[in-house]
């Protein structure tokens, strides 16, 4: 019951901020309400299947944009993906240096804190059962800072996806249901082998295939579905304050803010430098090189009318690379030790 009350208050406050013209007010408002609720009551609102819904919804909305996708557009991505790898290396190195040298952290905690990928994969890799509270605070600060920064700097009044589509027919509706079902099924298979953001990945690919085949002509994502995704995402972010006291946040907050700030600044520098060379929008490049928060970036990019396909392709590449690269590195080391 308390979870339902929190969700209703979060939706109401977020809708009020949106009505008052606050960019992405629904997302930011739900974060604030849920964070206060979780920190005061110690209860995190339940959002069963929430992350799956967010990923499928944003994945389908992104996949619909592949209707104008061609080989020339895809080839233009490759140089930027190369810059992304260099940018990630610089982000991890600089933020890690600050935590070890400036804050006196040990290397293991610093690695866990600056890793811009799936944190659970790192825990398994390092055989760590539970991260220290200061590591969790760094990741929470990264999520909150990126969310607040991009939400406030990027307008949220653009139309979403293909807003002026044809009337929805029964055939298109059934095809859309098939896309959802197939995305969930394939996503669960990828989830079993540890692929990060699996439902978003499968939804993007399946939708793109259906769009290119002409089976989803006239279909567009309704506004309410993306608003619901923003609400659920805000609640999930805010609920991470559960169990974190003000004393802990104050003690490690400055260190977290500096390390995350360094990573965001590095992304901005690379985006500005690469903009002229790649002949692309610096803002889109900055969002593409952000160290995490893929669902937040997707929602903000949709609302800001940016090139969502370009941005999310970078984030999915980052997640897949950072998820599997450490595991391969450990396996190589084990083989060398056995030899």
Weakly predicted, low-confidence segments: 125-129, 158-165
- What structural category do the secondary elements indicate? mainly alpha
Q: What is the string of helix and strand elements? A: HHHHHHHHHHHHHH
Number of domains: 1
User: What portion of the residues fall into strands of 2 or more residues?
Assistant: under 5%
Shape: globular
N→C terminal distance: 59 Å
Number of helices: 14
How large, in whole angstroms, is the Cα Rg? 20 Å
Helix fraction bin: over 70%
Q: Could you tell me the mean pLDDT? A: 82
**Number of extended strands:** 0
The largest sheet, given as strand count, sense and whether it forms a barrel, is: none
Keywords: Membrane, Transmembrane, Transmembrane helix
Pfam family, one: AbrB
Protein name: AbrB family transcriptional regulator
Descriptive report:
The chain is mainly alpha-helical. The chain has one domain (62-223, 244-338). It contains 14 helices and no strands. It has helices spanning 2-19, 25-41, 50-63, 71-102, 107-114, 119-125, 133-153, 170-192, 198-212, 223-238, 246-278, 282-288, 294-303, 308-338. Helix 1 runs antiparallel to helix 2, helix 2 packs parallel to helix 10 and helix 4 (71-102) crosses helix 14 (308-338). Mean pLDDT is 82; it is low at 125-129 and 158-165. The chain crosses the membrane at residues 51-69, 76-98, 140-162, 168-191, 198-218, 224-243, 255-277, 289-312. InterPro entries: AbrB_dup (IPR017516), AbrB_fam (IPR007820). This is AbrB family transcriptional regulator. Keywords: Membrane, Transmembrane, Transmembrane helix.
């Amino acid at each position: 019951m308390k979870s339902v009350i929190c969700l209703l208050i979060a939706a109401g406050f977020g809708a009020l901020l949106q009505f008052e013209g606050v960019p992405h007010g629904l997302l930011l408002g739900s974060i604030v309400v849920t964070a206060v609720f979780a920190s005061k009551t110690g209860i995190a609102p339940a959002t069963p299947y929430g992350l799956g819904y967010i990923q499928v919804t944003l994945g389908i909305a992104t996949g619909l944009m592949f209707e104008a996708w061609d080989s020339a557009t895809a080839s233009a991505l490759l140089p930027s993906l190369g810059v992304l790898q260099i940018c990630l290396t610089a982000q991890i190195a600089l933020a890690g240096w600050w935590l070890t040298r400036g804050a006196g952290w040990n290397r293991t905690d610093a690695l866990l804190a600056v890793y811009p990928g799936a944190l659970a994969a790192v825990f398994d890799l390092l055989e760590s059962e539970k991260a220290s509270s200061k590591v969790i605070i760094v990741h929470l600060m990264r999520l909150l800072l990126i969310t607040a920064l991009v939400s406030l700097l990027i307008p949220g009044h653009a139309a979403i996806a293909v807003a002026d589509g044809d009337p929805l027919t029964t055939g298109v509706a059934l095809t859309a249901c098939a896309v959802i079902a197939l995305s969930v099924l394939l996503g669960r298979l990828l989830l079993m082998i540890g692929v990060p953001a699996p439902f978003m990945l499968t939804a993007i690919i399946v939708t793109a295939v259906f769009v290119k085949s002409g089976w989803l002509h006239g279909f567009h994502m309704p506004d309410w579905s993306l608003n619901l995704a923003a609400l659920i995402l805000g609640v999930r972010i805010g609920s991470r304050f559960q169990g974190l006291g003000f004393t802990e946040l104050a003690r490690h907050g400055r260190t977290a803010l500096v390390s995350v700030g360094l990573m965001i600044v590095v992304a901005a520098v690379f985006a500005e430098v690469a903009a002229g060379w790649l002949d692309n929008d610096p803002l889109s490049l900055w969002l593409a090189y952000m160290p995490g928060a893929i669902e937040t970036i997707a929602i903000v990019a949709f609302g800001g009318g940016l090139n969502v396909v370009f941005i999310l392709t970078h984030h999915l590449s980052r997640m897949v690379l950072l998820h599997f690269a450490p595991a391969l590195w450990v396996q190589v080391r084990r083989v060398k030790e056995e030899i």
